[in-house]
Design a protein that fits this description.
Elements: H1 16-23, H2 26-34, H3 45-55, H4 77-89, E1 102-109, H5 113-128, E2 133-141, H6 150-157, H7 165-177, E3 180-182, E4 196-202, E5 207-212, H8 224-232, E6 243-249, H9 253-268, E7 271-277, H10 279-282, H11 292-312
Parallel strand pairs: 1-2, 1-6, 2-5, 6-7
Antiparallel strand pairs: 3-4, 4-5
Helix pairs in contact: 2-4, 3-11, 4-11, 5-7, 8-9, 9-11
């Protein structure tokens, strides 16, 4: 058994000890067995991750749908408790603190409407309190049309029309960091290639950008690795050796950190820390109790992300 805590993520360097600790965590192993799978004992890491990728297909409840459109799944109370215990042990629950105080860039990842409102607020609070310093801030996501209950959330929580993720992030950034003054990014081509982008400066002069990154490989909209690929190409925003803070929702931390290591740390030498927040932590109106099937879905996402990270690194 690895002595590394699966919740302790590297910001650079060799990620294999973290991958090993996460993939071989007893809580994950017992969860696999509870769903009828095999045990990890004696398996090579790459072979085990390959097995987990195939096995965890039963936890893919999205089937291409957005997360807020997935139907609830029924489990026994004992299995629900086991899923939540595994999510705790694997780093998918709880508010995490930044590992450092000084960062060149704070990146707030986009997502559903709650995320686009809660994550900017959390990042702004960290900066306002002096727990974190940064040279600039980017709200980074895709150009996804809203769906499901997102329209109702916008009507309740946003004082302006919003039709897509970019608009939700823009509204969330302005609400969290305001008052903001419109600004041109410097240099002028800093945000080139974005599907949509706008730039502001806070009252204290901090540059804040909102970006919808372009999709890769013919996708209709950018996924998280696509947004990291765009960010890596923006040398005016982040450079090799820089320290970057990613702000996301706790349930997505391991998966998105694996993607950031693969797309930013390994090829470009960018040091990455990823922190998570629970939406209700910053505003009770944003409370979102994730259900066991949501944690299983993101455990699967992390398995896929770690396997790809290991292959690439």
């Amino acid at each position: 058994m690895s002595e590394v805590d699966p919740r302790t993520r590297p910001s650079e360097g060799d990620a294999r000890p973290w991958i090993e600790a996460w993939a071989a965590a007893p809580e994950l192993a017992e969860l696999v067995v509870a769903f009828g799978g095999e045990r990890v004992e004696g398996r090579d890491l790459q072979a085990w991750l390959e097995y987990l990728e195939g096995f965890s297909a039963r936890w893919d409840y999205r089937k291409g749908k957005e997360r807020n459109l997935v139907a609830d799944q029924e489990f026994s109370p004992e299995l629900e408790e086991q899923v939540l215990a595994a999510a705790d042990a694997l780093g998918l629950r709880g508010v995490t603190a930044p590992a450092h105080r000084e960062y060149e860039l704070v990146v707030i990842l986009g997502g559903l409407v709650r995320a686009c409102l809660a994550r900017p607020r959390h990042a702004a609070d960290l900066l306002a309190d002096g727990r974190v310093t940064a040279h600039s801030v980017v709200g980074l996501g895709g150009l996804r049309e809203l769906g499901g209950n997102e329209h109702e959330l916008v009507a309740e929580l946003v004082d302006e029309p919003v039709d897509n993720e970019f608009g939700a992030m823009d509204a969330g950034i302005r609400a969290a960091f305001g008052p903001l003054a419109a600004a041109e990014p410097e240099p002028a081509d800093l945000l080139d290639g974005a599907v949509a982008a706008t730039s502001y400066r806070t009252a204290g002069g901090l540059p804040v950008h909102v970006v919808a990154a372009p999709p890769l490989e013919g996708r209709a909209r950018a996924n998280t690795p696509d947004t990291f690929a765009w960010l890596a190409s923006r040398r005016g925003l982040v450079l090799p050796g820089d320290r970057l803070l990613l702000v996301t929702t706790s349930i997505y931390v391991p998966y998105q950190h694996a993607g950031a290591l693969r797309m930013l740390a390994v090829p470009h030498g960018i040091k990455v820390d990823t922190i998570g927040v629970e939406p209700g932590f910053v505003d009770p109106r944003l409370e979102q109790p994730f259900k066991p099937h949501s944690y299983l879905q993101e455990i699967r996402s992390t398995i896929l992300g770690l396997r790809q990270l290991l292959l690439d690194a």
